[in-house]
Design brief:
The protein is an alpha/beta fold. The protein has 14 helices and 16 strands. Helix 2 packs across helix 5, helix 5 packs antiparallel against helix 6 (204-228) and helix 6 (204-228) packs parallel to helix 14 (346-358). The longest helix has 25 residues, at 204-228.
């Protein structure tokens, strides 16, 4: 899996460098309702709904595990470097930084109960508990080595989706323990991420507790969504994930193994990018989009704002306007640091998206 994802990592690093670092105000209606999904005002025919909506997390807080033993160090773990596995010894973990493009590692550290040891964050680590931490990525998701060194971390955990990779290796050469984790952007990968991050911090017991809890929460949420989503194949929403950066003229479709496929399937939809054989993250083509003909398009909030909103997007890209989603202006957006976050907030992300998809504000 790692070798297949390397090109995608390079692509998304390029995309992120073009992204605005400020947070834009959503331009479409928001969706927020604390009732269980089954008690919402659900759409009778989700494929026919007209209009856009924004998915909003009910709570962005991270609940740490309780009752776990304190970290046991030193420990030696396998670091899944992009050019091959290597053994890394972690002597201390009093000052930790987690780095990845979705903020999942930072969230996992807090979920393990290690938040008081985290000294810096990437731009995607956006939950409330981490707000006061210094940001050590710049230009989107590019590591600022000077900012990292200034924080004097003794452990950096990453998955290689934030770079340049040479900077991470330089940090290791400087005596900082750098551990690469290797998990899929998927439902199954959430528990494995908890276990690998925990192993790197000497917190194996906490990792197992967190993994078990998250796996249970996700399984229950996927079942809850399945109970309200159409079950007949002809009624299921055909969904595609579109990455937008209007200022740079970037329009990418996310396909198989990008994380978008797992997200869409968990939401009870049909991943039409996978259906047409689209893998990884590639520039959108008019032919691919028209062939896919989605009912609904998932986007990041800042990405949608960068193109001027739904109407401006449809005007700029007539091929999107020709799809069912374009005709119905059926877009659902969610904050950039949340929508593809496979970590402690996964079940909450699924819940929020399901509300925006199946019970939008009307």
């Amino acid at each position: 899996m790692r070798t297949r994802l390397i090109p995608a990592v390079a692509v998304i690093l390029l995309l992120s460098a073009c992204a605005a670092t400020t947070t834009s105000t959503p331009t479409v209606p928001t969706v927020s309702d604390a009732r269980p999904l089954a008690e919402l005002d659900l759409l009778d025919a989700p494929r026919d709904y007209v209009g856009a909506s924004t998915a909003v997390l009910g709570s962005a807080s991270i609940e740490p595990v309780t009752g776990a033993a304190v970290p046991v160090l030193p420990t030696t773990v396998t670091s899944h470097d992009l050019d091959g596995d290597t053994e890394v010894t972690v002597k201390t973990a009093d000052a930790i930084i987690g780095l990845d493009i979705s903020g999942s590692i930072g969230a996992t550290l807090f979920g393990l109960g290690l938040g008081d040891r985290v000294v810096g964050r990437d731009v995607s680590t956006t939950f409330a508990e981490a707000e006061g931490l210094p940001v050590i990525t710049s230009g989107g998701h590019t590591i600022n080595s000077e900012a990292v060194i200034a924080l004097r971390p003794d452990l950096v955990i990453t998955d290689g989706t934030v770079g340049p990779i040479d900077v991470l290796l330089q940090l290791r050469d400087a005596g900082i323990a750098v551990v690469f984790v290797d998990t899929d952007p998927s439902v199954e990968g959430v528990g494995e991420l908890a276990r690998q991050v925990a192993a790197a911090t000497g917190s194996t017991e906490a990792g197992e507790l967190l993994a078990t809890r998250l796996e249970g929460e996700i399984t229950a949420k996927v079942a809850e969504i399945a109970a309200i989503a159409p079950s007949a194949p002809e009624d299921k929403l055909r969904i595609i994930f579109l990455y937008l950066r209007g200022s740079a003229g970037i329009y990418y479709l996310f396909g198989e193994e990008s994380g978008a496929d797992a997200l869409i399937e968990s939401l009870g939809g049909i991943d039409v990018a996978g259906e047409i054989g689209w893998d990884g993250m590639k520039p959108m083509t008019d032919e691919a989009l028209i062939t896919a003909n989605p009912d609904l398009i998932l986007v990041m909030t800042d990405g949608l704002s960068s193109v001027g909103g739904v109407d401006a997007l449809l005007e700029a890209k007539p091929a999107i306007a020709l799809t069912r989603a374009g005709e119905n202006k059926r877009f659902v957006d969610m904050a950039d640091g949340e929508i593809l976050s496979f970590g402690p907030r996964t079940a909450a992300v699924f819940d929020s998206l399901a509300r925006a998809i199946y019970a939008p504000a009307r």
